[in-house]
Amino acid sequence: MTREYARDVPSIQADKDALHRVFVNLIANALDAMPRGGRLTVRAGWAGTGDAVRSGRRRPANRVKVEIEDTGVGIKPSDTDRVFNPFYTTRDSGTGLGLALAHKIVEDHGGTISFRSVPDRGTTFTIVLSLIPELPSSYGDEAPR
């Protein structure tokens, strides 16, 4: 496992338990995608700088980017349109809810989640979140944690 964290990225306002579920799911999927081993890389930095570890004076739109990258089996092009669909899975033991839930949580935080993948080379999931999100009304009067 490799960690590449920018030093100047502050904490964000978010539901830490919900985002923890997102990251645990993405990391578990990455590990499952590397049955013979491989490299898992977690990056965190400013969105838009192009380099997770480079510290820049300009911080675009006050957004942070987290990437989970693996050197696993990748996602087949025929599966890419369904990855975030509920109950869609390519694993015998999967429920197909992990990525759908991750997508919902990230969107509920006003962020985006996307991925790029090359079969037999690996996949990178990218999450972009604002430092202070505009939470949907479904959160009611609860303050984000």
Question: What does this 3D model show about the protein?
Answer:
The chain is α+β, with helices and mostly antiparallel strands and 145 residues long. Helices cover 19% and strands 24% of the residues. The protein is built from two helices and five strands, in the order E-H-E-E-H-E-E. Strands 1-2-3-5-4 form a five-stranded mixed β-sheet. Helix 1 runs antiparallel to helix 2 (98-108). The two termini are 28 Å apart. The model is unreliable at 51-60 (pLDDT under 50).
Identify the notable features of this structure and list them briefly.
19% helix, five-stranded mixed beta sheet, single chain, 5 strands, 24% strand, 145 residues
Structure summarized in a few sentences:
The protein has 145 residues and is of the alpha+beta class. Helix content is 19%, strand content 24%.
Residue-averaged pLDDT:
82
DSSP helix fraction:
10-25%
**Which outline best applies?**
globular
Radius of gyration of CA atoms, rounded to a whole number: 16 Å
What structural class is derived from the secondary structure elements?
A: alpha+beta
How do the strands and helices of this protein lay out in sequence?
Elements: E1 2-5, H1 16-32, E2 40-46, E3 63-70, H2 98-108, E4 112-118, E5 122-130
Parallel strand pairs: 1-2
Antiparallel strand pairs: 2-3, 3-5, 4-5
